[in-house]
């Protein structure tokens, strides 16, 4: 952001990082642009009774090992599956090399929500607006067509978050902390900016000036009003002189 020897200051800083990187980007925002504010990594899995509880548990812990502040959430339409996943997590933590971190995350931030049906699962997931969302159900296409708020979606047991992070090509710089309600991940558009311009004819300027002037006056912006009034009078005078 401030430049260094051999490099001029940049206009934008992007990309993932740890808590220190996130804080640095937060403090620099305004001096430079950033892609998005990033918090602890998140995973939410939607699963029904067709899902393999061992696989669900593995994928939850796969993200929980990022740090003790990494949420791992399960939404399921099957209370039985929910209980089995909890048992599986406890069993896998006994042998997981990163169990100290993953266990802390699961203890603090792990959740299992049992909902009545698929639509309730979709509604709850959209409220969470997770960074990473996996769907492991017998109706994956139903979910794919209806889910709205997520950073990246992994459909079916054949895909998993680690694939997206490391190699299959989907985005790895994603919104966290419910930011997926209003933005997606980093993409080429983040490096583009939209600029606009306006050009009016004298006739158009004269025509719109009274309306704009009244709007400005109603807001108490009298100098604003004057910029419209001056143009209205100027172009009206020119029009009369030319006729």
TrEMBL record:
Its EC number is 1.1.1.23. Its cofactor is Zn(2+). CDD domains: Histidinol_dh (cd06572). GO terms for cellular component: cytosol. Keywords: Metal-binding, Oxidoreductase, Zinc. InterPro entries: Ald_DH/histidinol_DH, Histidinol_DH_CS, Hstdl_DH. It is an enzyme of class 1 (oxidoreductase). This is Histidinol dehydrogenase. The gene is hisD. GO terms for biological process: L-histidine biosynthetic process. It holds the Pfam family Histidinol_dh. It comes from Candidatus Afipia apatlaquensis. Belongs to the histidinol dehydrogenase family. Gene3D superfamilies: 1.20.5.1300, Nitrogenase molybdenum iron protein domain (3.40.50.1980). GO terms for molecular function: histidinol dehydrogenase activity; metal ion binding; NAD binding.
